[in-house]
Amino acid sequence: MGQPESRERGTAEQSGLPPGQRLQRGWPVTHYGPVPKFKPDRWEFRVFGATADGEKRCWNHQEFSSLPFSSVVADLHCVTKFSMLGAEWGGILAREVVELAPPAPHVTHVMVWAEYGFSSNLRLADFISDGTLFATHKDGELLTAEHGFPLRLVVPHLYAWKGPKWVRGIEYMTADRRGFWEERGYHNIGDPWSEQRYSYQEEPGDGPEL
């Protein structure tokens, strides 16, 4: 990656903790399943689904790593109730990817796909918000494999499960559907400030139409 071309400051230094969260020193490793082995010659990032031109867009690792690099200072809130405040994340803004591979006008949601078929659904507005970033670095250092190298999504205003590790692409969707953890009882939106942890807390309109 090159040097940052832009830097977006969040409000982590002034923010408190969301309800039910505790301040975490350090960064625990939390994930489901094994850590995938990175194979740069086979790695690609795909944008598919309801794209504006109907075509799929792919980048290999070198091409994706050459996209404009940005930094975001933001918090990370895990549904297991720990929060890290004021981390500096470096990588490619989600909206940069959307500008290069735009969705069709009627797209409302994005499914983020990761290794082993893992997935997480997001409203398009959450995906293109200012702080959402495909992270390659934290605090100036490359991510470790355990923390998502070569690429993880960071969505600072939602619980951290909405930002999968080992991301491989995004699918544009014209209707919502649940991702991996959402199918297993987690809240479809995942706002930590409203403590949207579990699906039984969902209000009408929070989840996909049946």
Describe the structure in your own words.
- The chain has 210 residues and is mostly beta strands.
- It is built from 3 helices and 12 strands; from the N terminus they run ββββαββαββαββββ.
- It has helices at 61-65, 94-100, 124-127; strands at 6-9, 22-23, 44-49, 57-60, 70-77, 82-93, 109-114, 119-123, 133-138, 141-142, 152-154, 167-173.
- The strands form 2 sheets. Strands 1, 2, 5, 6, 9, 10 and 11 form a 7-stranded mixed β-sheet that branches. Strands 4-3-12-7-8 form a 5-stranded mixed β-sheet.
- A hairpin with a 7-residue loop joins strand 3 and strand 4 (57-60).
- It is globular, with a radius of gyration of 16 Å.
- It starts with 5 loop residues before the first strand and ends in a 37-residue tail after the last strand.
Helix count?
3
The multimeric state of the shown protein is single chain
- Taken as a percent bin, the fraction of beta residues is 25-35%
Instruction: Please tell me how large the radius of gyration is.
Output: 16 Å
Give helix % range: under 10%
| Number of E strands | 12
Given helix and strand content, the structural type is: mainly beta
Overall mean pLDDT score?
91
Principal-axes shape call: globular
Catalogue the unreliable spans.
1-14
What pattern of helices and strands is seen along the backbone? EEEEHEEHEEHEEEE
Measure the end-to-end span: 43 Å
Query: Main sheet?
Result: 7 strands, mixed
